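Preliminary data (for renewal application), adenosine monophosphate complex.
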Amino acid sequence: MRRLIALTVALACAAPACTRPTPPDSDRFPALGTLVEVTVRESDDGRRVAALQRARTVFESATRDWHGWGGGELARVNDGTATPSAELAALITRADEIASASGGLFEPRLGTLVELWGFHDGERAPGPPPDDVEIATSLESRVRIDLGAVAKGAAVAAAIDALRAAGITDALVDAGGDLAALGDAGGRPWRVGVRDPHGLGVIAGLDLRTGEAVFTSGDYERRFEWNGIAYHHLFDPRTGHPARATASVTVVHRDPATADAASTALFVAGDDWPRVARELGIDFVMRVTPDGRIETTAAFARRASLPDGVATR
Ligand code: AMP
Ligand code: MG
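Predicted structure:
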């Protein structure tokens, strides 16, 4: 009987209400078109609350100022009514560098094309894909900057910096499955799972080293169907159409912005991903093909728990 009571008490105290008196160790909020969760391991209540607030502010600014539409800083730069701040200018420069290192597979100046396909903002209104003449015209006009494939990484990096500056040594910043870790999860590494692009489960598990980021680009993230054909938001700049050879690419790297941009570039690269990864200096890659085959770099396979039958390239 005593045992039963002890168990009941333990269960009751595992419920969230029991931990309410101290401020929570994580914060969740919508930002950059996804749900962000920031978790910090810090015993000092005041420091923890202040750090979480700083991280949230970083995401709020990035959502407003690094989106190419909607009246924030980048939108005004695109409209020719503002010049970029030093921070935004540095991000655009970094994006242009990655564009050139990826041989143009990552291309942050496809805003007009992304808008034509309807993937620039919120939910796409139902309707057919654009026609080839419109696509060709948009592809030629490389004026509107879209940092959609790198801004989340840059924001995660800035949030990690803000947490460090606030005295935090152990944290996880997770922006809808794209994340970076600081320190550890209490004597053991932060462990992350990579989801199956076309299923519900997790297909790979990985322990993160401090400062590392994991970013995935997948054809399941934003999509629409028309006449039974699915169209997604990751475009091959050579054709202006969704890149078809890959279902998802996951990249692990110490710089979250690089991991973010590289996952997009390697998605577009298709079968050629190992060469482009080398050009970009990326060691840890996992690719899932549309028919469910998994390929990784040897360095990724050495660290990750993976199903049988994975090919290393
Ligand atoms: P991500 O989920 O990081 O791969 O980024 C996807 C977003 O990047 C899309 O919603 C577009 O806004 C933009 N995008 C699509 N294709 C490309 C590309 N080839 N290079 C750079 N950005 C792209
Ligand atoms: Mg990306």
